[in-house]
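does this look right to u?? BIS(adenosine)-5'-tetraphosphate version
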Amino acid sequence: MKNIVLFGPPGSGKGTQAEVLKEKYNLVHISTGDVFRYNIKNKTDLGKLAKSYMDKGDLVPDEVTINMLKAEVEKNKDVNGFIFDGFPRTESQAKALDLFLTEKKMPINGMVALEVAEDLLIKRLLNRGKTSGRTDDQDESKIRNRFNEYETKTAILKHYYENQDKYYGVDGVGSIGEITERLSVVFDKL
Ligand code: B4P
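got this back:
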């Protein structure tokens, strides 16, 4: 099995690349952001809760996100592996994921991180905000709050996976195709 955490700051291209890589490697793509947006669209209780955090650019509480992620994994039996996109985003999510996947005897092979400078990320997100309808992409102060959440709660996960010899950084600047090529070099090794 290949279980890969696709990592990077908001707008680094995790969702974009996961769409391509899931086909190439026959993996199940779980994006916690997409699952939340699906629930918001369908006005479920989970969606209403998530919306109150996402609209401000805050992270959704760990307990909610961890339970949701586990349910998504359980829906997919007998698969080649998973691309986790946007999860984990806190140390407590990373520990919960390790515990859960170790119990299932399907550990993480590696964290593959897209590295992109903040000024370029802001441009990409504001640009998407013009057409996506995503409220968290339309306002620079909300985008800056997402970066702040990333810096204070998520960026430390680089060290978490480095300590397990599982961190692989990839330059996330270039065309979408070029970046897929770079990521594939790492995916092939894992
Ligand atoms: P996510 O949905 O995970 O999304 P993201 O960080 O905005 O973006 P991603 O990196 O996937 O970028 P994308 O490919 O779309 O999170 C949204 C919110 O959900 C969070 O703020 C949080 O509130 C909540 N949430 C999600 N997971 C959570 C968790 N585990 N715990 C708590 N809360 C959680 O690309 C962005 C843009 O760049 C696109 O427009 C794309 O077309 C463009 N782009 C991509 N690659 C490009 C390239 N090479 N060149 C130019 N443009 C490119």
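The pocket of BIS(adenosine)-5'-tetraphosphate is lined by residues 8, 10-16, 31-33, 36, 53-54, 57, 59-60, 65, 86-87, 89, 93, 124, 128, 136, 146, 176, 179 (CB under 6 Å). idk if thats expected tbh
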